[in-house]
Design brief:
homodimer; alpha/beta; Rossmann fold; Four Helix Bundle (Hemerythrin (Met), subunit A); 2 domains; eight-stranded mixed sheet; 10 strands; serine-type carboxypeptidase activity (chains A, B); EC 3.4.16.2 (chains A, B); Ser_carbopepase_S28_SKS (chains A, B); signal (chains A, B)
Chain lengths: ~425, ~425
């Protein structure tokens, strides 16, 4: 575990502050001149990503690679202003992807200067989800520092105007459909039932006890309850891994199948839905009650990013998907962001900064995607050139290829990992041939 | 003349301010779907660049192009904080190249959305000197918005650690040598004479009157006098155009030849040197006296940029060049910057942000260079790939190819302009073939 100093603001000189960013080094397998496998940390404590990302260490021996996990600013222990980091926009405003990429660029430059045997090491960026987007972007913006990237579940197209906001809901619905044909229909029919119950005191009481909620529901809470359930199903699809895992929460193997089993086998629609919710939140049996106000991931800092530059519209129509009809409403969203954070989203900035759909000028990026993962809707699913390679993994959820190998991994994932390693091998040869 | 609103800080949300950036549009020759020729404004009022940059309008009819000249923030009328823009680091700190590139990216996005017939127009960036660097960088950082760039005299390699700081002085000396073989020797011998005169009151008086200085020299002024003269010769080489021009100052054709004629034909070394100085500052005969404290170009805002991210080391050894031995002293430079602006340089940032010498991942950039121009020492002089094309123009000074055509243009420049137009034609065809 190492910390290095970096600018709070790389792109201006109005703020001269610096802070310490954390990164983890594992040079167990490193051979002089071998590659550096660099995980571009995303929205969470970096140690969580180390646990859930086995691929780098598993590939390291073959390549004699050094493995680095770099933490994203404003997460874990990498706080620009310590406990004041979240105080107000003046302190929190430097939480952006462009600043984080610059942190990583500065770190890579530093590593190649200071780490023994790494002066000529090719660097490969790895990341999943938002970390995968960062891995893709660092190759796009800093290709002199990064010889290539593996961007898993990198939804770089999930921005306003370049991907239909319903696509995400379609994939989530399809994942449930594949687990049990009757499952999406049951979930779809739950919304009216919930809506009706929300109209009476007895109904609210009933909902509160069925979902074993921590706080008694009021009519005002109903939109939040629906939102919480919508997100629950989306998250289920996201982490539909083939073995028991503890990514966002401990769950059994194939959790969507388990959830759908509860939903379909239960005569009462709502009982089934509630049982599936309890499975998610209380698989270990240690959760006393369910809290609908708790975010699923990323916590406060990610909420802020989602309110500023990471505007990834998701909507549903209730017809082609299993969700209620929820349009994407930018102005309401903007109001909520201002209310909460005193900032307004800049919804078009990410497309300007990160090239929209026209990334053909980039090179040496692998985009891997699981076809169960709703985020795949905003990902690169087709290869764009010899060096912009898309891999779609059947029966795989959110960046399953990055996770530690498991006997239950589907063949598509085993194949993808082998292909990824071979491509990196090729890029290393090209790097050496170019004398870089 | 149009203004559009843009963020003061594109990369963070700590500062929500916006301001108006100026740009000039000429659509005289524009045909629907034709290209946009976009001048990435550099360190000065944009109207000055319009006058000195004829190439865009001269090429526009052939391509049916719209011509845009966009002003750089903190220059001309594009002041983020009006008259307070230079007040302190908190106001001035947003004067950086990365912010300026983002301004241009936002403007291009906007133009393609709002300008009639421009929705599918390929955009080509043009620029000279620092503007040429911006033209190269905008293609590197925002290739989805810019189909290609003509970067003239773009000294993107003139940064610490990637170009020898003496190279600049060598080229300047060579330019004087080519104008008159005895000229550099005379200039070289002037430094000891000046140094000696600076040691006595009578000598200082003598220098003051010979150079017709506005303020009487003191011993303390001697380093500034030497600095002023060193820069004078460097600037002479820079603007050694083959016809009378008024780029930084009005001068006759081939000013280095004129200056060297005065220097070599004068029996007294110092009289010759002083005559050459007066030629530069008083060619029109309207300057009452010479002011050694006045910067040659860019004014305050450029001084600030040169003190923050645009750290371009220049030095001389007095042996292989015609200058006194002046080492590059970063710490003294940093002190002076802090004294003046309350900021410290970040000398390595530009190499991290703009790829150092390893720009092979870029594409579609023409780097044109005049071989008389000292800045060519930090430019791309050799083609790096089929689409990173270097052109070296014999007998040409600083970005002569961008200037309006003139009967006195050397053949190399006429040829370069034709080659540039043909390459742009090819890029337009590729752009259309890709269906972008």
């Amino acid at each position: 575990i190492v910390f290095y100093p970096t600018q709070v603001d790389h792109f201006s000189f109005a703020n001269p502050d610096t802070f310490l960013l954390r990164y983890l080094v594992n040079d167990t397998y490193f051979k002089d001149g071998g590659p550096i496998f660099f995980y571009t940390g995303n929205e969470g404590d970096i140690e969580g990503f180390v646990k859930n990302t086995g691929l780098l260490m598993e590939m390291a021996p073959r390549f004699g690679a050094m493995v680095i996990f770099a933490e994203h600013r404003y997460y874990g222990q990498s706080m620009p202003y310590g406990e004041e980091s979240f105080k107000d926009p003046a302190h929190l405003g430097y939480l952006t992807s462009t600043q984080a990429l610059a942190d990583f660029a500065v770190l890579i430059t530093r590593l190649r200067k200071t780490a023994s045997g790494a002066a000529n090491s090719p660097v490969f960026a790895f990341g999943g989800s938002y970390g995968g987007m960062l891995a893709a972007w660092i190759r796009m913006k800093y290709p002199h520092l990064v010889a290539g990237s593996l961007a898993s579940a990198a939804s770089i197209f999930q921005y306003p105007g370049i991907t239909d906001c319903e696509a995400y809901s379609h994939v989530a619905t399809r994942t449930f459909q594949r687990s049990a044909a009757g499952c999406p229909g049951r979930i779809r029919s739950s919304w009216d039932i919930i809506d009706d119950l929300g109209k009476t005191g007895a109904g609210l009481q009933n909902l509160t006890s069925m979902f074993r909620l921590c706080e008694r529901l009021t009519a005002d809470d109903m939109p939040a309850l629906v939102d919480w359930l919508v997100n629950l199903w989306m998250i289920y699809a996201l982490i539909d891994y083939p073995y028991p895992a503890n990514f966002l929460t401990p769950l059994p193997a194939w959790p969507v199948k388990e959830a759908c089993h509860l939903i379909v086998s239960n005569e009462d629609v709502l009982s089934g839905v509630a049982a599936a919710a309890k499975l998610y939140f209380n698989y270990t049996g240690q959760t006393a009650c369910l809290d609908i106000s708790k975010p699923y991931y990323g916590g406060l800092a990610w909420q802020y990013q989602a309110c500023t530059e990471q505007i990834e519209p998701i909507c549903s129509d209730g017809v082609n998907d299993m969700f209620p009809a929820i349009p994407w409403d930018l102005s309401a969203f903007s109001e909520a962001c201002y209310e909460r954070w005193k900032v307004r989203p800049r919804p078009h900035w990410a497309v300007t900064e990160y090239w929209g759909r026209n990334i053909s000028a980039a090179s040496n990026i692998i985009f891997s995607n699981g076809d169960l993962d709703p985020w795949s809707a905003g990902c690169v699913l087709k290869s764009l050139s010899d060096s912009l390679v898309a891999i779609v993994m059947e029966d795989a959820a959110h960046h399953l290829d990055l996770r530690p190998s498991n006997p239950a991994d589907p063949p598509s994932v085993i194949k993808a990992r082998a292909q990824e390693a071979d491509i990196i091998e090729k890029w290393i040869q090209e790097y050496r041939a170019a004398g870089l």
